[in-house]
């Protein structure tokens, strides 16, 4: 059956309507609208250049919006703390602009940073945990160094699932942390926010800032992005430097951009790009600066051959899924050819758990050794702190306890790690090669996203409006390593196609 024959327009017309009493994400019943709240980077750049807007005004507005909505009003709790130096930084960047000095297209733009990314300033870097509160990080993570050099204003730190989602998988809800509380969606207060980068996604969707830095280990960037209706890119592992990230596993951890459109995400990626040190983290990573934003192609879907899983996780044909049908019809209108792929998904859950548990125990100790002025130095210290200082919600720490208890011989660990990486890569590479595909597409919350993260391959989620359920839906693009530019162009072209 031709996918467009399912009449996506009729499906959209049957979508559930939000309550008339809820006016998010603008929340004009609480705070008067401002033209900068949801403006694109292009619009903001034009206004900054013609003098109708200053960085100080932009930051002042962002702080006012956070004050009105994050602990008051709908209490979104997307931001753990704001930067007390943000206005002075904005003023200095305005002065540079007035003197004719521009650092790049993001000069004077406020950006929020996930609370698991080091900032060498007055703010904490805690992964949402009171156990890490104390002396701030001594230096910026390298991606933050790059952002400051590009002229951004670090506006504050965003909430997350505590310990980057690794604390408790049985009782703790996604988007909750001991420091930040429960993040709530700006699109519907009963909507899911997922994790762990929930605060970054909600902050962008709520108009706090045009962009935010998130991180991903396995779905923890693209998942929150799709449910908040924003763009999220998990770059190829090694494209961005890993230093200064509160770790789970360097085999998968990466920072990545969130924004309201693909162009803005590409601009943020350009500003973050680079590796600190003598060479790339992963062999084959580009070492010369790449301008991802200028490389976007609006016609990238014309003639593109894209694969998708023939069957959804529930065993039904994916092309009959109401959300995928809507997005597939858009791809076809843009000139893409869609090819069903009969995937046999390998069972890798045991390997993923083993790798996470072994790596977080030793990598966290290495990270904490570089954080003077805080009480904990090992995973065991963190567990003891949580026992001595229980949170009011009473959540457990089952995953931290499991990680502390896992002790396996190094050769067996390597078997699991290689299985996880190699089988995930083979799944994607074989499908691309067998069908001559440019990329693979899926529902963002489908199965491909996890395998892509385990492979270290890039993944992009692009909003596609509200689905038949009334909740945000998004299309996920993935391919082999170093195809970040291709995926961004495909996503950019997808945005250009009218619903």
Structure characterization notes:
This protein is an alpha/beta fold and 499 residues long. It has a single domain, classed as Amidase signature (AS) enzymes (Alpha-Beta Complex), CATH 3.90.1300.10. The protein is 35% helix and 13% strand. Strands 1-3-2-6-8-7-12-13-11-9-10 form an eleven-stranded mixed β-sheet, with helices on both faces. Strands 4-5 form a two-stranded antiparallel sheet. Strand 4 and strand 5 form a beta hairpin. The longest helix is centred in the last third of the chain and has 26 residues. The N terminus is likely disordered.
Please name the defining characteristics of this protein:
alpha/beta, two-stranded antiparallel ribbon, 11-stranded mixed beta sheet, disordered N terminus, Amidase, Amidase signature (AS) enzymes, 499 residues, single chain, 35% helix, globular
> What is the number of beta strands?
13
Q: State the separation between the terminal residues, measured CA to CA.
A: 20 Å
Largest sheet: 11 strands, mixed
SSE succession: HHHEHEHEEEHEHEEHEHEHHHHEHEEH
CATH topology type: Amidase signature (AS) enzymes
Unreliable sequence segments? 1-19
Q: For the record, what CATH class applies?
A: Alpha Beta
Radius of gyration over all CA atoms, rounded: 22 Å
CATH architectural name: Alpha-Beta Complex
Helical amount = 25-40%
Strand ordering within the main sheet = 1-3-2-6-8-7-12-13-11-9-10
| Secondary structural class | alpha/beta
Instruction: Give the percentage of residues in beta strands.
Output: 5-15%
pLDDT averaged over residues = 94
Q: Give the overall shape.
A: globular
CATH superfamily: Amidase signature (AS) domain
Domain Amidase: 58-373
Protein name: Amidase
Pfam families: Amidase
InterPro entries: Amidase_dom
